[in-house]
Design goal:
The chain is an all-alpha fold. It has ten helices and no strands.
Length: about 220
């Protein structure tokens, strides 16, 4: 299947910001500008939703067109497909609670839910990449690669890139290595150290002054 360049652009927020917000922003009219910024953010949500649907469709197409080995089929069916469903579920749950135009602070329960969803997305995103790596290894990799240490298996890992049968895939993915490292900076702490957190609200400098005034009155 060819790389979907248009679809790739639809998940790039800066591209959508330039299209739906930047041309209409007026200095000194923050309220009006926010309408267009929310428009760009909402279109970004649509783009991510569409990308998840396309990824699921691509995986199903692969299953119907390629004679996978039993091991590769196992990782595609029960690794890739499950991860995609979990990411889709987490993303929809997240966006249903915090749409771009939300102005009301989150309740403690809502904050817990979006924190759960955000952490799940990052953990399952890297898990999805690992599942695809195992599909490729079991379908195309050498015997030595299949017997390698499981921790050396990954789409962006050196052991994967030096296998002659897997090198074309590794070369095609190389332009995305910075993105993968960026995802890891969020996923690794979430999985092993400090979870990602979504605060109930964000305060402007004016809000902070007002909050501190009320705090002083209370005390």
């Amino acid at each position: 299947m060819p790389f979907n360049e248009f679809g790739f652009q639809e998940v790039e927020y800066q591209k959508l910001y330039r299209q739906f917000a930047a041309p209409f922003l007026v200095e000194g009219n923050a309220e009006n500008n926010l309408v267009f910024i929310h428009e760009a953010q909402q279109n970004h949500i649509y783009g991510v939703n569409n990308a998840l649907l396309e990824l699921t469709g691509d995986a199903l197409t692969l299953l119907s067109r390629i004679a996978f080995t039993a091991e590769a089929s196992h990782f595609l069916r029960f690794g890739v497909m499950r991860r995609l469903r979990m990411i889709d579920s987490s993303f929809k749950s997240f966006q249903s609670i915090v749409p771009p135009n939300r102005t009301v602070p989150l309740s403690p329960d809502q904050s817990d839910r979006v924190c759960r969803d955000l952490n799940a997305i990052y953990i399952d995103l890297l898990g999805l990449l690992d599942n695809y790596a195992w599909v490729a290894v079991h379908q195309l990799g050498s015997a030595a690669m299949k017997a390698a240490n499981p921790f050396s298996i990954g789409l962006f890992k050196q052991a994967f890139a030096v296998d002659p049968a897997l090198k074309p895939a590794a070369d095609a993915l190389q332009p995305f290595s910075d993105w993968e490292r960026d995802v890891k900076t969020r996923r690794n702490p979430a999985a092993h150290r400090m979870p990602l957190y979504v605060p109930p609200a964000a305060l402007t400098p004016e809000d902070v002054v007002e909050f501190e005034r009320f705090e002083a009155l209370i005390s």
